Amino acid sequence: MSLLAPWFLAGFGLLSIPIIIHLTHRQRSRVTVFPSLMFLRKLPFKTMNRRRIRHPLLFALRCIAVILLALAFSRPFFDSVAEVEAGSARDVVVLLDVSASLGYEGRWEAALDSARAVIDGLGEGDRVAVATFDERARERVPLTLDLVAAREALADLSPTDLGTRLEAGIQLAGRILAESEDRTREVALVSDFQRTGWEDGGRVRLPDGVALRAASVAPEEAANVALAEAAVRAASDGRVRLLARLANMGDAPVERLPVSLEIAGRTVATVSVDMPPRGVGTAVFDDLALPEGRSRGRLTVPEDGLAIDNEFRFMAAPEAGLRTLILENNRRASDGSLFLERALRIGDAPRIETSRAPAAGLDAGTLSSADFAILNDADLADAGRAGRLREWVSDGGGLLIVLGRDASMNRWSDAGLELLGAGPGSLVDAADGRRLSWLDYDHPVFEVFSGPRSGDFSGARFDRLWSLEPAGGTAVVARFDSGEPALLEHSLGEGRVLVWTSTLDRYWNDLALQPVFLPFVHRLALHATGYREPDRWIEAGGVLELTALVGPGGPGGTGAAGLAGDEAEWVLVDPDGDRQPVEVSEGPTWIEFPRAGFYQVALRDDAGRATTVAVNPRITESDLAPVATERVVEAVAGVAPAAGEAGESGATAGGETVPRRAELWWVLLLLAALVLGVESVLANRWTRQRPVSGLAGA
Amino acid sequence: MRARIASRTVPGTQFLDPAVLTRIGNLELVARSVVEGFIAGAHGSPFVGLSLDFAAHRQYLPGDDIRKIDWKVYGRTDRHYIKEYEAETNANIFFAVDASRSMDYGSRGITKLDYARYLTACLAYLSASQRDRVGAAIFDEKLLEYIPPSVRHRRLILAALDRVRAETAGDLARPLTQVAESLTRKGIVVLVSDLYTEPKTVLDSVGALRSKGQDVIVFHILDPAEVDFPFEAARSFEDLETGERLPVTPDVMREEYLSLVKGHVGEISKLMIERAIDHELIVTSTPLDAVLFRYLSHRSRRLKGKDR
């Protein structure tokens, strides 16, 4: 028999209290005034009678009741498995959390102590396995009788930079014990039980009969400041603004926290940040001139309990912005590009620079300096002009064709129509107005508007539009309520062409006056050019595809040459400088970055062709708030946990220990109640006032 | 010729609860209520005519008590004549009231001292109404009040009783000796006390009065709690007079205590009888008119003895 709360046995000390009270306190507590002690004084020895027990049975019953209560509260239980399979040995899986949050001061040592205590508690014939988990679970030591080896294996472990997935560990432990037969099975889970590691909790269960004992090493209160994100925004004159986002995970406010920025190994600036309890703050570094190319950047804050999130790494590069060329019909007197240009210029993610040029005078030189071109209400009657545009798009350019009154589609050349992706359209004069009735919210242009209250296109009224018949390969992305296409898209070579069948000014519709106008044209520009914000950093445990890393579109920009089938050999240099060859496969080659720090993917023989990847620990590990241990145990074991030592809970999945324990407690409590009931009856009977032989009349 | 006193009990008397009397406050009112109620309840009782001497005859008138018809005169004269009596005024009644601290105890709404007050007031009222000379001494360890006997001192006695407070420990010997020396005329001395002293000391103290030729009636006043000792749980008992505390387990020692009290009362009673002193144990729950009845019984018995 064992006790879950043995400290309640101190309740036996209560046995002395009635006696002490009886001997000392009782007589002093009540004073009765009496006319004379003349007769009482003649009975001095009788007053000592209170020092002996008048009703030994009552006293015994009271003592038994106290003993039973103390025993009940100490929660004795019989190990159910030991009862069922007397003499059978145990199989225990020590499941140790090695996620990044275990790096919080003192947690790792406490976790190792708990794990060692489990192993030390095993006896002869017991087997132990050691498994760890962060985002993934690993079996470190399979079930073995060699307890020393298991203990030594713990010494080789340390916290990783990865997140927490309790379910992964539970599943692995269950699998290990599933192979165990005719043995008492138990999982000793040692973790800080981060809430973020149990977001999807409750979906995994241990096999029936497997007991789970959970030991939490989470301190009651853990303060932590984390660097969460770095964002680079283009400013004027090629300079940038860097925003560092911080999170205060503690319950106390943070004032004047110094945040230092380091670029290419040189400290650039330090700013102070204030943050409310469990709030966020932003450190702004303005007017930064970044070196050419990609540079390593580091943000740091003073060290606190969790060191891994006090440093944030990123790759910084000057922001070129998105160069946009607006091609206009130079015959037109009014400013049809005013709304379009103003809208595009607003914003810095990315910064969009605009320039205008007459569509009639378009040449290859003008186009070569643009990432995005807008043919705004101009015709493509000239086959040469259309051909130049077609060539530019095929080379990866993004084109938006906006059709207005000057589009003069009946004059378009075949090359122009090919660029349009549709046959020559007809002008629709909608006196009653048209509305946008269907938008493909799965399309990249509209997906940001898919959420509720994320943008209303139905408010715009269209009085005129071009009705186009899409050619093969051209997709309709939006339609008017009359069924005519509003936005079409088709690819051309490596580029992309979008066609808007009405104007982007106030002449044919009032879309330019709607709140959605600005984000809409931004989305058109970003989608047409295939713009993607460069990966400045990834989280530990993330993977990148080799081509994306070193290809033309990748951050390294080293070119596509030298991949599979080539003679070149790629190596991965980890934050410690260790080099590992990258095995290039026929398909996509994925590279994992498991630790925080700067990695390099480089050609073995040409260190100059290297791409640096900044890796940061999982931000979820910075939130140290724990989930209730009992909740985890209940979900995993499927029964209510029994309280154990401080920070420990336990239960058996599908087992019988819990009912048996409960029965024992209740039996003791019921016995105590029964004894007290008998005591009350006897006490009332024996201490009832006796008839007194009065002296009146004597 | 003295009137004959019957000693039968008062049938069906609705006695007044002493605790109720404490609410009246005015001693004279209490005494008059009790005494007049007592006399009314005893209508036709043999006490009528007590202490009165024959004065003359007068002719019977309708409404006169036919028992007062002198049949011998009727036999001689064939007319109805009523015997008329003259009040006897020569009886000395002196009250000695213990006002020691121990008398200031009451477990049922009335203290022993209050009870002694009412009892003495009633007796004084009754005696004065019978034209006895009444006097009183109130004492604790010394004389607090002394009122010599007189037919007009009833109100002084009531006022003195009203004033007195129980404040110090008591003593019987010295005050009673002073009383004995002060009484020059033989009479009845009524001692009202709880007699918390050794029986021998009581006898010596009361004996001083007896040796002076006084008839002594002792009303031994005790509270019900003193004679029943109804306490249960262990506690400390504090002496009212000395403040001394004693740890006691009442339910264990009740029998012994009661035995001691009974022995004490019995010893006093025995010694009193030996010295021809009337001793009456009165518990403060006893109605006052019942005590009056006992008093008058004793008094008539005493007077009868004298007549013989």
Write the layout of secondary structure elements.
The complex is a heterodimer of chains A (698) and B (308).
Chain A: E1 2-3, H1 16-29, E2 31-34, H2 56-73, E3 76-77, H3 80-84, E4 90-97, H4 107-120, E5 127-133, E6 137-144, H5 147-155, H6 166-178, E7 184-191, E8 210-216, E9 225-234, E10 240-248, E11 254-263, E12 266-275, E13 280-288, E14 295-300, E15 311-316, E16 322-328, H7 338-345, E17 352-358, H8 364-368, E18 372-376, H9 383-394, E19 398-402, H10 414-420, E20 426-434, E21 436-439, E22 462-467, E23 475-480, E24 485-492, E25 495-500, H11 517-529, E26 538-539, E27 542-545, H12 546-550, E28 570-573, E29 579-581, E30 590-593, E31 597-603, E32 606-616, H13 629-637, E33 642-643, E34 648-652, H14 657-687
Parallel strand pairs in A: 4-5, 4-7, 7-8, 16-17, 16-18, 18-19, 19-25, 26-32
Antiparallel strand pairs in A: 1-3, 5-6, 8-34, 9-10, 10-13, 11-12, 11-14, 14-15, 20-22, 21-23, 23-24, 24-25, 27-30, 28-29, 28-31, 31-32, 33-34
Chain B: H1 18-21, H2 27-41, E1 52-59, H3 71-77, E2 81-87, E3 92-98, H4 112-129, E4 133-139, E5 143-150, H5 154-163, H6 173-182, E6 188-193, H7 199-211, E7 215-222, H8 224-228, E8 235-239, E9 245-248, H9 250-274, E10 278-283, H10 288-307
Parallel strand pairs in B: 3-4, 3-6, 6-7, 7-10
Antiparallel strand pairs in B: 1-2, 4-5, 8-9
Helix pairs in contact in B: 2-4, 2-10, 4-5, 4-10, 6-7, 7-9
Terminal CA distance of chain B: 12 Å
Average pLDDT number of chain A: 82
How many domains in all of chain A? 5
CATH class of the largest domain in chain A, anyone? Alpha Beta
Output the structural class of chain B: alpha/beta
| Strand residue content of chain B | 15-25%
Given as residue ranges, the uncertain stretches of chain B (5+ residues, pLDDT < 50) are 1-15, 41-53
Number of domains of chain B: 2
Structural class of chain A: alpha+beta
Order of helices and strands of chain B: HHEHEEHEEHHEHEHEEHEH
Q: What percent of residues of chain A are in strands?
A: 25-35%
CATH topology of the largest domain in chain B: Rossmann fold
**Tertiary shape of chain A:** elongated
Low-confidence stretches of chain A: 80-87, 552-565, 654-662, 689-698
Report helical residue fraction of chain A: 10-25%
- State the distance separating the first and last CA atoms of chain A: 67 Å
CATH architecture of the largest domain in chain A: 3-Layer(aba) Sandwich
General form of chain B: elongated
Classified in CATH, the superfamily of the largest domain in chain A is: Class I glutamine amidotransferase (GATase) domain
Give the second-level CATH assignment, the architecture of the largest domain in chain B.
3-Layer(aba) Sandwich
How many E strands of chain A?
34
